[in-house]
Amino acid sequence: MHYDIINAFTGNKSLGNPAAVCILTQRLPKEQLQQIASKIALPETSFIYKNVENEWEIQWFSPKREVLLCGHGMIAAAFVIKQKLEKECEVLSFKSKSGKLTVAMHNDQFILNFSRQQLFPKEITEEMKAAFSGTTIQEAYTTQEKDHLVLVLDSESAVKDAKPQIAIIKSLASHAVTITAKGADIDFVSRYFAPHGGVDEDPVTGSSHTRLAPLWGEKLEKTKLIARQLSNRGGMIACEIEGERVKISGQAVLEKENIVIPNYDM
Fold it and tell me: Are residues 128 and 229 in the same domain?
């Protein structure tokens, strides 16, 4: 079995968020997919398969667990299909465990269309402060499922310079913690930490912007926003709020292709 590595939310091979894309010829058990993703050891691996109804199915796995929604993994999968299999395609639909998902392709942009995710205010705790000691937390929010925590800091530099305490972050939310602030020369910035999934810090996270874009859209009174994720690799995300939907778009670039999965016999 082979895979390609695609960097999403960038046009630069050394930036953005890398995702592996494996094209399957048959469905494989979840345990087998997890084994493959663990061996590849990238933030996410996208597995795509064309079923008997001629639909693309997609699943994502981090090195430690299955992920139900992955923006950069969707862009990576769409890039591979567009480049190798369906070169004339302008819109792709995927059947996923999160429902039907679409990717539109226009010029060099891959445009995702997700449901906006509501955030609920949460009391700031000493544990939150300890997770990012030395920073000032202005606001805290959680998702309805309480699996994601969003902390608003006082400046872009605070987000950039934050020293995350991963052991404490693990105790704050069952899935991930995001820190964010108004940008100095851009609408907003963020960083995303998901140690439960085997990714201490994700380079660029498309799905988190289904929460962040509505939050900052309301604060800045804007429906179109540009965001930057301030990881070591970094990336740019364009966001557009349309009622209960959020469009998230970015570029993608091939880093490597036709890589053999190490020590794996199908």
Answer: yes
Do residues 202 and 193 touch, judged by C-beta distance below 8 A? yes
- Structural domain of residue 35, as residue ranges? 2-108+251-260
For 185, what's the count of Cα atoms within 13 Å in the CB-facing half-sphere?
1
Residues 6+ apart with CB under 8 A from 67: 44, 60, 61, 73, 197
What amino acid occupies position 180? T
Tally of domains within the chain: 2
Task: Indicate whether 236 and 255 sit together in one domain.
Answer: no
Q: What is the rounded distance in angstroms from the CA atom of residue 40 to the CA atom of residue 253?
A: 19
Q: Is residue 113 part of a domain?
A: no
Structure tokens at 27: 């469905």
Residues of the chain with pLDDT under 70: 263-266
DSSP state of 82: I
Give the Cα separation of 207 and 229 in Å (integer).
12
- Whichever domain contains 155, its CATH number is 3.10.310.10
Record the tokens describing residue 255, joined without a space. Answer: 């880093």
Q: What is the CA radius of gyration of the chain?
A: 18
Note the pLDDT of residue 266: 53
* Per annotation, catalytic residue among 44, 156, 201, 255: 44
0.70 surpassed by pTM: yes
266 part of a folded domain:
no
Is 66 among the residues known to form the active site?
Answer: no
Q: What percent of the chain has pLDDT over 70?
A: 98
